[in-house]
């Protein structure tokens, strides 16, 4: 049977899971895209952990739907005439979930931990002389030279957002993942009910003080309309579809495309594009270890990649939901320019010849891939097939997503538990500029997994940052994208749109980069 026929049959015949859950209209039951294996949204950039972070934590500033920074935990700010001193005043009465007040010292410690992990914050580092608490509600940032992107940085609402947590937690090393979750966001994490691989539970925090402005993206009011939100981890797509159709869950974040016709045919369900800007898919190679420390080997793989193979495997045959893209900046963003098509002809014969001439000596290649995350898992399977045809000694090692997230941080050789190739997907908005995209940075071991190093790429990032006008910024960004592709720091695999599915008695699900829980209510 074809995969679609098999899944549809399974979704129609399977009984919905017997979910242990609270009953009633005050509970929202949500199926996230993957298991919440890691809780710390500063330690990892995993999308599911960032989604979790927005329930629990809040930020000083946030981006609205027009990508304008707006105060969130901040009451406002003052900037000295020379642009070298920023004073940020916290709103009065903010509380953490343990009912302790949010202090400037908490914000300072949180920003200090976060900026050691975030590449955008790394751009501030050469200008930053220090962050300190002037009093209980005032954070002061002192600079050696103006940093025009300060508000955009503090309002960053993508992966590795500058979430504020208590000082005692923020004092934890940024290389150690936090286990305790105490924030000041609209929902409180219920640690006693957390079971990785099964579920996570959040309860409305009665001490949360929402802003009065209309919600817009991550900005404005974040009023909680449910007393309780349950995340049900259901790795099997057919089982998740059956649960949604039978009313056992209310909202499935990312249904498998093959099941969309079945869900759209149910009179009680609705679907919509989750984010109009879409998502990108990429391949990252481990540039620290053989054989991909050799750029000739990386370029050989790049020659053989056919994006349509990846998109069809991950998204399906409906070409309205995906497109090829030969740039490191997504379509619909300011710096998209398709300058890398010639580097990716999808020519298997050329790829084989390049590999033969590269000096590849038969080293084992380990592709790590999630078995419970269909959109990413399919990418790994396509790469495995390509590498086998090219003549690599390749091993596809599939595991749950949580294991992949943990393992991708290992820099060891494959013989000691390391890896050679991984794949991921990411919101297009997360990759719109050199400041926010981890995939275009050449930071080496200080950068994103794969650890590609390029002083030339980092120089172009600085050129972009310091360019006096839009034309100069675009020239630097386009040159950067081309350099990343020539250096095979990241291989783009295409862009796609995700449809989210939910019961029609749920309203307020907005088209946004993340499945924000505020504004969602039962009709």
Could you please describe the fold and organization of this structure?
This protein is of the alpha+beta class and 523 residues long. It folds into three domains: 3-33 and 194-274 and 499-522, D-Maltodextrin-Binding Protein, domain 2 (3-Layer(aba) Sandwich); 57-167, Dipeptide-binding Protein, Domain 1 (Dipeptide-binding Protein, domain 1); 279-496, Dipeptide-binding Protein, Domain 3 (Dipeptide-binding Protein, domain 3), CATH 3.10.105.10. Helices cover 28% and strands 20% of the residues. It has 15 helices and 21 strands. The protein has helices spanning 3-13, 47-56, 104-115, 119-124, 150-154, 167-170, 237-245, 260-264, 295-304, 307-315, 348-357, 374-390, 401-407, 455-466, 470-486, and strands spanning 27-31, 61-63, 69-71, 74-79, 85-90, 128-135, 138-143, 187-189, 199-204, 228-232, 251-252, 269-273, 279-285, 322-323, 364-370, 393-399, 421-427, 491-496, 499-503, 506-507, 521-522. A seven-stranded mixed β-sheet has the order 8-9-10-1-11-19-12. It has a four-stranded antiparallel β-sheet with strand order 4-5-7-6, with helices on one face. Strand 6 (128-135) and strand 7 form a beta hairpin. The radius of gyration is 23 Å and the shape is globular. The chain starts with a helix and ends with a strand. The model is unreliable at 15-23 (pLDDT under 50).
């Amino acid at each position: 049977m074809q995969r679609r026929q098999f899944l549809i049959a399974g979704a129609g015949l399977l009984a919905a899971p017997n979910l242990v859950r609270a009953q009633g209209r005050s509970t929202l039951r949500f199926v996230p895209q993957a298991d919440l294996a890691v809780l710390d949204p500063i330690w990892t950039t995993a999308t599911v952990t960032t989604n979790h972070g927005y329930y629990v934590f809040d930020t000083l500033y946030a981006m609205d739907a027009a990508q304008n920074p707006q105060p969130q935990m901040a009451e406002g700010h003052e900037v000295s005439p020379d642009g070298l001193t920023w004073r940020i005043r916290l709103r009065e009465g903010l509380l953490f979930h343990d009912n302790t007040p949010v202090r400037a010292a908490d914000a300072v410690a949180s920003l200090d931990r976060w900026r050691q992990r975030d590449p955008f914050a790394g751009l501030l580092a050469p200008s930053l002389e220090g962050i300190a608490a002037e009093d209980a509600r005032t954070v002061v940032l002192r600079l050696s030279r103006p940093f025009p992107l300060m508000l955009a940085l503090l309002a960053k609402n993508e992966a590795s957002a500058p979430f504020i947590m208590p000082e005692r937690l923020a004092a934890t090393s940024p290389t150690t993942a936090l286990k305790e979750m105490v924030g000041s966001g609209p929902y409180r994490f219920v640690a006693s009910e957390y079971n990785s691989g099964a579920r996570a539970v959040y309860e409305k925090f009665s001490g949360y003080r929402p802003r009065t402005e209309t919600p817009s993206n991550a900005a404005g009011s974040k009023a909680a309309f449910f007393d309780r939100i349950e995340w049900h981890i259901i790795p099997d797509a057919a089982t998740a579809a059956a649960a949604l159709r039978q009313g056992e869950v209310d909202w499935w974040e990312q249904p498998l495309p093959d099941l969309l016709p079945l869900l759209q045919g149910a009179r009680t369900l609705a679907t919509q594009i989750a984010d109009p800007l879409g998502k990108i898919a990429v391949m990252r190679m481990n540039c620290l270890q053989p054989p991909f420390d050799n750029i000739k080997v990386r370029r050989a793989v790049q020659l053989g990649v056919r994006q349509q193979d990846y998109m069809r495997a991950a998204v399906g045959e409906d070409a309205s939901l995906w497109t090829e893209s030969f740039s490191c900046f997504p379509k619909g963003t300011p710096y998209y320019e398709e300058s890398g098509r010639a580097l990716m002809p999808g020519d298997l014969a050329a790829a084989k010849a390049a590999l033969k001439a590269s000096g590849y000596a038969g080293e084992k290649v380990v592709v790590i891939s999630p078995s419970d995350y269909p959109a990413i898992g399919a990418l790994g399977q396509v790469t495995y097939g390509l590498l086998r045809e090219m003549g690599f000694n390749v091993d596809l090692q599939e595991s749950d997503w949580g294991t992949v997230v943990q393992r991708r941080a290992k820099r060891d050789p494959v013989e000691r538990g390391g890896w050679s190739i991984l794949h991921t997907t990411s919101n297009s908005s997360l990759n719109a500029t050199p400041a926010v995209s981890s995939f275009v940075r050449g930071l080496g071991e200080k950068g994103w997994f794969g650890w590609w190093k390029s002083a030339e790429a980092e120089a172009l990032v600085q050129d972009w940052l310091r360019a006096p006008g839009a034309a100069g910024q675009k020239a630097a960004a386009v040159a950067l994208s081309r350099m990343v592709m020539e250096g095979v720091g990241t291989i783009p695999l295409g862009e796609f749109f995700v449809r989210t599915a939910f019961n029609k008695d749920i309203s307020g699900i907005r088209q946004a980069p993340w499945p924000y829980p505020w504004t969602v209510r039962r009709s």
